[in-house]
Design brief:
Length: about 325
């Protein structure tokens, strides 16, 4: 017990020191919290990479978490920096060392995008210039952090482009497979409001005119992909095929038509799996260049009168393949 108490105190020490000395900054290194336990039921070894009493959170499952060099996992936390702001962090799988990647206010950690083609990280930073898509050079920052030669945050960040004031984020953003563009789900702030009847009872999210815009990663140029008469959600570029985007009609409940797919120029915008009244679709995600997995909810008796559970759909042909469902409880 004494050993466990001492270990817990040591794990919390970096946060305590940070709060005493002011906010921790970019490149700050935190001692490893890595430890391995044996699962009592299966005997499998489980490696924990974070274990401090902080609000650490993994990135959303539709976005990559590993850095391009496969050495670090990116996560976010609102307590480690010591000033209450949410920041991005990298944890080394090999050593367990944790490195702070961002600092200050306005870092959009709710939608962090890790590059698949280089050691870079993308996020929106809100400040005096508005909301700016920002590129972070992880290669330089992680090397300088290890060498103890970290400079200012501005030395590692590049402003890609500004989100125009007529838009607010809705559904996050995503990188195209070739990473020439970022696709951003947006609400149209200057559009006529939708009538109250557009939001059905049971929907937790109010319906507003929305869309997807593209921001050129090199030039910052902004262009419109599509506009929709419903709230945009879960924007996901096809990670295997450039120029294709999956998104959803976000209601916070059972959308009449959940999944949609479009080309990056706005053409071929269409529903993916056309839903009937007893279909409740959620949690769609690309699984390869031509297929999407999603969950057909089976938590209500009326829904179990047809196939439910994890589904696989061919984006090209519409062919649907049920992959499985639990026979008990609420299902997957």
């Amino acid at each position: 017990m004494k050993r466990n108490a001492l270990r817990a105190a040591l794990l919390l020490l970096p946060m305590t020191l940070a709060m005493q000395a002011g906010a921790a900054g970019i490149g700050t290194r935190y001692p490893s919290e890595k430890h391995v336990i044996v699962d009592k039921t299966t005997g499998v070894l489980l490696t924990f990479l974070t274990s401090a009493e902080t609000s650490d959170a993994a990135l959303y499952q539709t976005h990559p978490r590993w850095t391009y060099d496969s050495k670090y996992i990116i996560f976010r936390s609102s307590e480690r920096s010591g000033d209450g702001t949410s920041q991005a962090y990298a944890v080394s799988e090999e050593t367990g060392v944790i490195i702070q990647l961002t600092e200050g206010t306005g870092v959009g950690t709710g939608s962090l995008n890790v590059s698949r083609l280089s050691n870079k990280l993308y996020y929106f930073r809100t400040g005096e210039q508005g909301k700016v898509l920002t590129e972070l050079d992880l290669e330089r920052l992680l090397a300088d952090s290890e060498a103890g030669t970290v400079g200012r945050a501005a030395d590692y960040e590049r402003a890609v482009g500004e989100l125009p004031s007529r838009y607010a984020e809705s559904g996050g953003f995503t990188l195209d497979a070739d990473e020439t563009k970022a696709y951003v789900g947006v609400r149209l702030l200057d559009a006529d409001p939708l009538p109250d009847e557009a939001t059905e009872p049971g929907w937790r999210i109010r319906q507003v005119r929305s869309g997807i815009i593209a921001i050129d990663i090199q030039t910052g140029e902004v262009s419109t992909v599509i506009e929709t008469p419903f709230t945009m959600g879960h924007v996901q570029a096809n990670p295997f095929k450039p120029g294709e985007i999956l998104y959803c009609w976000e209601t916070g409940g059972d959308a009449p038509q959940r999944m949609w797919v479009t080309s990056a120029d706005g053409s071929d915008n269409r529903p993916l799996y056309e839903e009937g009244p007893d279909d409740w679709v959620t949690h769609e995600v690309w699984i390869d260049a031509d297929h999407v997995y999603f969950n057909m909810m089976g938590h209500l008796p009326r829904l179990r009168k047809k196939a439910t559970g994890v589904m696989k759909i061919n984006v090209r042909t519409g062919a649907l393949q049920p992959l499985g469902q639990l026979e008990y409880g609420s299902g997957f």
